[in-house]
Amino acid sequence: MTPLLIDFPVFDPVAIAIGPLAIRWYALAYICGIVIGWFYARSLLKKERLWGGPAPVSAVQLDDFILWVTIGIILGGRTGYVLFYNLPHFIQDPLDIFQLWNGGMSFHGGFMGCVIAVIWFARRNGLPILSLGDITTAVAPIGLLLGRIANFIKPELWGRAADPDLPWAMIFPTDPTHLPRHPSQLYEAGLEGLLLFCILAVMIRFGALKRPGFILGSFVGLYGAARIVSELFREPDPQLGFLWRGMTMGMLLSVPMLIVGAILVIRALRKPSVHHATPSLQAQP
């Protein structure tokens, strides 16, 4: 059978150029993810029926929180990549830590940065931590979707070698082996981004925000599952390769998320709702 390979579309790494100012796709994905997520979060806060009453966070407080969570994503994401994925390199060349335009952001590190931002901001402003966490994670898949598309455009973090007969197998121009591979960045965009966003949106529609911590726990657990599945098709980072029992670093970091997510969801279901919970989300006796 003749291999049917899709030619990888070559993109200009610079998305927007205004004189000497150049914004790359990677940076644009972060900017758009934060801005779109901000507008979506504001729309959720306006709908009292989703909360069973006034939302526990005001629009003004959300506006202030955006800066906090942005700093948490950037600092946490870069710190996580340095520590989890390429520490020996950065010990040798510490100045490379600041070259964010070259990529190298860890979701798990960025998530921990967000957790710190949520806890810190909530305590400083007298807000319920779990509810603020629910809002943050409800919009997180938007950034994940755009981020994975940016990974594809760059291109980086491509997939494992695929059967040449796979209709959507691609040869990435930056791959020195020139093997047909899974476009795993698009798999992740679909699972971690689009699908996860839709699932959380349906949960919110049926009253999940009335149980603080439910959306947070659902995001944590479902992301962990989606990431583990995606890693089955993604080429491990070359400096790490396969780790314990053939698992990748992404898998190992996602396993605890399954456990933490399940704990958060169970706790949310066992506690009475803040207002009147939707019956489909009430704990079963």
Please give a structural write-up.
There is one protein chain. A hairpin with a 2-residue loop joins strand 1 (14-18) and strand 2. The longest helix has 26 residues, at 59-84. It is globular, with a radius of gyration of 20 Å. Mean pLDDT is 88; it is low at 276-285. It contains nine helices and two strands, in the order E-E-H-H-H-H-H-H-H-H-H. It is mainly alpha-helical. The chain has helices spanning 25-46, 48-51, 59-84, 87-92, 107-125, 129-153, 184-205, 214-231, 249-270, and strands spanning 14-18, 21-24. Strands 1-2 form a two-stranded antiparallel sheet.
Concise description?
The protein has 285 residues and is mainly α. 58% of the residues lie in helices and 3% in strands. The chain has helices at residues 25-46, 48-51, 59-84, 87-92, 107-125, 129-153, 184-205, 214-231, 249-270; strands at 14-18, 21-24.
